[in-house]
Design brief:
- The chain is built from 26 helices and 24 strands.
- The strands form three sheets. Strands 1, 2, 3, 4, 5, 6, 7, 8, 9, 10, 11, 12 and 13 form a 13-stranded mixed beta sheet that branches. A six-stranded mixed barrel has the order 16-17-22-19-21-20. Strands 15-23-14-24 form a four-stranded antiparallel beta sheet.
Length: about 800
């Protein structure tokens, strides 16, 4: 019997090639989208789940207390980790780890040549207990004490191979990192791609003792993290309560402006507010949105299959009548048609797997992730694929099987199937409406996200960003002595218009947060938490910062005068910026006068509000040179800059970036989301149009005699086309009436995460309904015209 069903299914597929191709195409597209989205979500949800102790590991973070709101930060004072181990012996473990960026690596080769590397990220100072808490296996070296001693370092296999040609030659080798000589005492296995700890190098934490105050509770480096491992019988909420007493004991007297709280390891990957070492977060709201989209795309593929199958049911009516006359019962026919559906679905699934493999590199490039073919064939994925195959086969095939098996032989012989078919018309129209609700919701979402991205690109940030290069230089004592020479050489370069030195660019990730207090403030809470941006006096002209009161500070090397932004003035409740000029404030532990107020400018993405900013000269902290250039000479200027760097800093790798590109990177995830919405909206429209094609095909067959009679009575072709198309226009309008409020609600919620955002106006919805109607007209037009132009003799010859 199975062979008979298989042979019948294959015969039906090959006999009606166009219908089969269209039917299978919808399933292929739906399957492929579902598989790829499931892979992405599964990958993002797997971050750092390979650590055996992961469920008990937490990051200790700061919850800052200002007069207005909480200010969440990652770094903790250096003594925190040791004090936690001492005060809470019930802790299973605790480890400090500090992330360091833009590290210069110099390696002397046996021939005397120098190899230079620049590690932008992946370099960490860590305590030995970090390797006990986290599962980053040591494949060579003393597992008990690989980084106990100062100036010892662990390299991953890939990093060791880059430095020494072969990772097995790295053990015992010495080299310099930012001028510090370190010795390789161990080799780590390469970390998996699904980790928020993109480790390349781990340096012993004790190495820091020569360079920072490890006992200072007042100073905080936001790159200095503390992780704790709780025992199974200790809850997060209970330990948070104990941390309150810990903060009161050690921190309140020197810095009462924050509390310490725990954040679960599993939550770090989703938190764009606090971020992680990898700089890649994937919000839970995005996970939910993609999950729903994948399910909806699969459902509308099933809907499309149902519409197309039932539209072609008339062609198989006589087959059903003959089978029933020869003794087949309805149950057998249902099994047969479900089997045919399963074969079609399996064929679509096989093709979609091949298509998903082909699309993996494109998905990796789009989302900047690392999906592999092996993940597509993991045990979990195989189970999902089989379950999806069974579910889709049932959803797609059950209703058509009921329709096909329900034909009565007497009606078939009398060619009176229309009455039976009419019963399911409402259901089929409902399916088309459902398809276009999803499609139009995605179209509105795409338009809104694209408009928000356009707003990001064109928004006034409060400073000039175009044609400005930022390049790092060594900010050690040698680098600081060469700053004047560097400035002179850059000004000699043709096409360089302006040069300024600073610690940070106006908009850069991270920063230097500190307290601002008025001299009369005797409370435990600072008046404001401000971002320090040390820079020379030329910084204002180069970036076009606009003064609204006072003047810029005079050239100098140390903090003597301050320029603040308007947000600082509002935070101090000073009504007029002019009234702030001359006011003495305590910033970074030093009393200095405010000599100028600049117009607010964005120091981070438009997702967040403008921060309080303090500008002041501080030569010994400069490490960035900002260069305003003529873009037409960019290539020669960067080549000239590299030559200057090689001459001035021969051991230093020259790297630069354009400010406008750095700002664009703030919105990398939004750009990815915009691209995803475009792709998914296109897929939904494609499948929905196939559904329309199925319904118009069904209607054309069902109303063939009516069309013939109308033509005989003189109805013109445009009239018949309009008659057939009118219903679809009504269905799409009905779908829009459902989709519009849904899309408005969800996109309104999405926009709320941005402090600066577009207005969700009527234009998005008007464009959506017009484009949907145009797409629908193009889809049904060909079939409607073909039906209207058919020879009425062919449809009426049996009458």
């Amino acid at each position: 019997m199975f062979k008979t069903y298989l042979r019948t299914a294959i015969r039906h597929l090959t006999r009606h090639k166009t219908n089969s191709i269209v039917n299978i195409a919808g399933l292929i597209v739906g399957f492929t989208a579902f598989l790829l989205i499931f892979l992405v979500i599964n990958f993002e949800n797997s971050f750092d789940d390979f650590h055996p102790n992961g469920k008990n590991i937490y990051r200790v973070v700061r919850a800052g207390k200002t007069r207005d709101e909480r200010d969440w930060r990652t770094g903790v004072p250096y003594p925190v980790t040791g004090a936690l181990r001492k005060d809470f012996p019930q802790l299973a473990n605790a480890a400090a780890i500090l992330s360091d960026n833009n590290i210069q690596v110099n390696i002397s080769t046996p021939g005397g040549a120098q190899k230079k590397f620049k590690e932008i990220d992946g370099v960490f100072f860590a305590e030995p207990s970090f390797l006990q808490m986290f599962s980053f296996p040591l494949i060579e070296g003393d597992s008990k004490s690989p980084i106990h001693e100062p100036n010892t370092v662990l390299l991953t296999k890939n990093t060791a191979a880059r430095y020494f040609g072969d990772w097995q030659k790295a053990m015992g080798q010495s080299f310099k990192m930012d001028g510090i000589t370190v010795k390789v005492t161990g080799i780590l296995d390469n970390p998996p791609v699904n980790t928020d700890f993109p480790i390349k190098v781990i340096i012993s934490y004790t190495t820091l003792e020569r360079y920072v105050d490890m006992n200072g509770w007042a100073g905080i480096d936001d790159a200095n993290y503390c992780f704790v491992q709780l025992r199974d019988n200790t809850s997060q909420s209970h330990f948070d309560q104990m941390l309150t007493g810990f903060t009161d004991k050690h921190i309140k007297s020197v810095n009462p402006g924050y509390d310490l709280v725990l954040q679960p390891l599993k939550e770090i990957h989703y938190d764009h507010r606090l971020g992680n070492f990898a700089g890649h977060t994937f919000g839970k709201d995005l996970t939910l949105a993609l999950s729903l989209i994948s399910i909806f795309l699969l459902i509308i593929a099933c809907v499309n299959f149902i519409n197309l199958t039932t539209a072609q049911a008339v062609r198989r009516a006589r087959e059903v009548g003959v089978r029933k006359t020869l003794g087949s019962n309805r149950g057998q026919l249902i099994i047969q048609f479900l089997g045919e559906t399963s074969i079609t679905t399996l064929l679509a699934l096989i093709v979609s797997l091949l298509l998903a493999i082909t699309c993996l590199p494109l998905v990796n490039d789009l989302l900047d992730i690392h999906l592999s073919v092996s993940q597509l064939f993991s045990i979990k994925m195989i189970f999902v694929v089989l379950a999806t195959l069974a579910l889709v086969s049932f959803l797609s095939g059950f209703y058509p099987a009921l329709v096909l098996s329900g034909f009565r032989p007497i009606n078939v012989l009398k060619s009176a199937i229309a009455a039976d078919q009419q019963k399911g018309a409402f259901f089929r129209r409902g399916l088309v409406v459902f398809q276009f609700v999803i499609a139009q919701t995605l179209i509105i979402g795409t338009l809104v996200v694209a408009a928000q991205m356009d707003y990001f690109r064109n928004a006034d940030l409060g400073f000039k960003k175009d044609a400005i290069i930022a390049a790092n230089f060594p900010h050690d004592s040698l680098g600081l002595t060469k700053m004047d020479h560097l400035r002179d050489e850059l000004y000699k370069t043709v096409g360089v218009d302006n040069v300024s030195f600073s610690t940070f660019t106006p908009a850069a990730p991270g920063g230097w947060a500190t307290d601002l207090r008025l001299p009369a403030n005797n409370t435990n809470v600072p008046d404001e938490i401000v971002q320090m941006k040390p820079a020379d006096s030329n910084y204002f002209n180069l970036y076009g910062l606009q003064l609204v009161a006072g003047r810029k500070y005079f050239a100098g090397d140390t903090i003597r005068e301050l320029v603040v932004n308007e947000t600082v003035i509002r935070g101090l409740h000073i009504p007029d910026p002019k009234d702030a000029i001359g006011k003495i404030v305590n910033v970074n532990g030093r009393l200095s006068p405010i000599v100028g107020v600049v117009k607010d400018f964005h120091t981070n993405s438009l997702r967040d509000p403008i921060l309080s900013v303090v500008l002041t000269p501080m030569r010994n902290s400069y490490g960035t040179v900002n260069v305003k250039i003529d873009l037409t000479k960019a290539k020669s200027i960067t080549a000239r800059m590299e030559a200057i760097w090689n001459n001035s800093f021969p051991d230093y790798v020259f790297e630069y970036s354009f400010i406008d590109q750095n700002i664009a990177n703030f919105y990398k995830q939004e750009n990815q989301l915009s691209q995803l919405y475009k792709i998914f909206a296109g897929i939904a429209i494609f499948i929905s149009c196939l559904g329309l094609f199925g319904l118009i095909s069904f209607m054309a067959v069902q109303r063939k005699k009516e069309i013939g009679i109308r033509k005989v009575l003189g109805a013109p072709v445009p009239h018949i086309v309009a008659m057939l198309s009118k219903e679809f226009a009504l269905l799409i309008v009905l779908a829009f009436l459902i989709a519009a409020p849904l899309a408005w609600y969800y996109m309104h919620q999405w926009l709320q995460q941005y402090t600066y955002r577009i207005t969700l106006g009527a234009g998005f919805f008007l464009l959506t309904i017009l484009s949907s109607l145009c797409i629908a007209c193009l889809t049904v037009g060909y079939t409607a015209i073909k039906a209207a132009r058919a020879n009425p003799v062919n449809s009426l010859r049996t009458e």
